[in-house]
Design a protein that fits this description.
Blueprint (H helix, E strand, L loop, with lengths): L4 H14 L10 E7 L18 H9 L1 E7 L5 H10 L3 H4 L15 H7 L3 E6 L6 H7 L2 E4 L3 H5 L3 H17 L7 E3 L7 H15 L5 E6 L8 E3 H4 L22 H10 L6 H31 L6 E7 L19 H4 E2 L1 E4 L8 E8 L3 H8 L25 E5 L8 H7 L13 H12 L3 E5 L3 E6 L4 E5 L17 H11 L8
Parallel strand pairs: 1-6, 1-8, 2-11, 3-4, 3-6, 5-7
Antiparallel strand pairs: 2-9, 2-10, 8-10, 12-13, 13-14, 14-15
Amino acid sequence: MTTTRRHFAGISAGALASAAGCSRGSRPNIVIFYADDLRATALDLYNRDAVAMPNLRRLAARGTVFDYSFTPHPLCCPARVSLWTGQYSVTHGSRHNQKLMSDDATNMAALFHEAGYSLGIFGKNHCFTSQQLAQWFAADYSIGSRPWRAALTPQTSRSIAEHAQWIAEQGGALMPPSAAPFSHEIYATHIATEHAIHHLEAQREGPFFLWISLPDPHTPIEVPEKFAGALPADRLKLPPFRANELATKNTRMQIFDYLIRGSEIPDTYLARYLSIYSGKTVFLDYELGRVMDVIDGRGLRENTIFIFASDNGDFAGEHHLMVKTGSLLDSMVRMPLIMSWPGSIPAGRRESALVNHVDIMPTLLGLCGLSSPPFVQGKPLPLQSDAPRRKYVYSEYGNGDPEYGWREARQLGPAKRLGDYALTTPAELAHLERRERAGHLRMIRSHTHKIIADSNGEVEFYDLVRDPHELSNVHGQAEYREAEERLTKLLAASNEGLN
């Protein structure tokens, strides 16, 4: 459900009125440091076998780590629109990558802009239209924007073009995982951070709200040599996998496995993928540290809410797969979430409650003295020990379009190279879009069980206590009848009832 322009204006006025007792100078700054395709268990904060990220640990020591944080929709654009609207995708309507945020959607950018915040975006957008950016953001350094292009030197532009050509020669978006013979300084992840740092250093009046949205560790899985050796392939531990496991998963996953020839991929290839993917996360950590250092150096830490999060996951070896597809397994939906604000958010704390990224918007509004609009579906994050907590968390995937089945998949055919996926021609791209839009996959998860139901009638059910890696689908087994019936009833409820 979205709001009308008239209703939105009323909401904005109410939000401003609720903040009237808090002067502009005293309200906290906000920084959201946002990753792309980063699952929680790729980080050593959530998985002791993962690569070390010292700056993320530094942030965690200053704030609260949410151990069970979930995306409302594991796909770039829907997840980002949910972040900024506090709504599930079936409500805000951006349910695939081609549908940016609606102009009449109640959203955090407009509310904070009207409350006197100076907003800036640095890096990947995939959420706002150009008109929305111009209306609400004082600084627009989104990738490809006019300010972004204008700031590139001729030499940097040439190096970026050479890098793009090298990626194409290696195989394109799903090239084999590789260390790249290029400086990290020509990568969008570094350039976006550099713009954010320059903006922070030039900041003279608050409050500000910066979205530092970096395009890593998204494909292609290649990283500057500087970071490539962070977790060597011959030393890492691959996630567990059960033979014939995919036969019990949904058709979406089986089709994806067929298209990329996932079952044929050797462990050595998966290890190399996870190694380079881990290098990309270390690249993120390096840039995170640079931002934190500037905030500390300018004396802004005490009055800045700092959030680290991601839009969706990547299999990165889990279930013997890589990249992402239509699935609501934890590989796709369990996200990192760390939140810091000295004196207001407990430091060095681990929070085990189930939380959803639709909860970020109402939490920030509340911390800044602004009221949440009535159509926000998220709830304030449990930042204190006595705060209310969810018993269940919800996520979804798909736009409700016609199902994409084996007939369509065989028209496209399996990849010529292991791990590849055909994305060269318009017809091939259309197959990807059809897979992302097909049907409606929904999930309810507790700490102990998960149900995933597809609009084609397929159901998965997992015992997360005995099977935390979700290797065995126990749907329909007598032992789990009561637990499955309970989650099935919850799944039948409206989205508004899921909180």
